[in-house]
Structure prediction request, 262 residues.
Amino acid sequence: MKYVLEAVFSLGFLVLGGMAIFLLMRFIIMVWVVRVAERVILGTLNLIKSILFALIFVFAPAILGAFIIALGLQIALNASSPTGSGDPTMPVLIGLLSFFAILAMRIWQWQARRQRETTLAQAMPDMVATSHEGEASNAQDPMALAWYRAMKIAPKRQDELMSARAACVALLTAVDQSDGLPDTDMIETATLIRNHLIPFVDSMERRLQGATRAERKGIVDEMARYLLGFGDRARRALAAAGPDQKEQDAALHAHLSAQLFR
Prediction:
């Protein structure tokens, strides 16, 4: 009887274990299927979005522009013709040439926009990296995020803003890693950047909400002008502190030469 009970319990445990493994495998397969379906759906939606974007922002302006140019030329020929009916050959040829010219221009603009987006996306990991050692690797630096938001607002000024950001980062790093007392102008500039750059970008984003297209352009230009101003001041502060460091290096070399090679 004892062996029968042990066999029954063993068989029961095996059945329960098999059911647990079956349910686990079923769950894993379902999760995998859902993820694959999600990727397929997202890929399809992105493809549809790209096609619609191409139709609306690339082909539509080319067709519309070619039609307007050909129609205007045909009207001009009809007005100058004694019979009131000009030969449509020239307007059609000019219209075709205009179509391909506008199409090429719009494709170039689209590629330039995609390149800016790709460059910004590639710069994002560096811009949201930690600003202090010991922090979690996925921590986000509010200052870096502010610059990233500004570049998304003004993608056409991305190169200038990245240059300004690099100058500000260089200044803040120089102040933080300075062995001695940093220059007064460096401290003031670093304080200005830390205290006002993020609130400034926040205020620009608030002003853009509900702004018209004309107002948006003025706000974006103003934001870029101020952020470039932050970068210019950071460069001036670094340049002003440069000669002092060179003098310190020269004094150190002179001292070592006097002690080592006398």
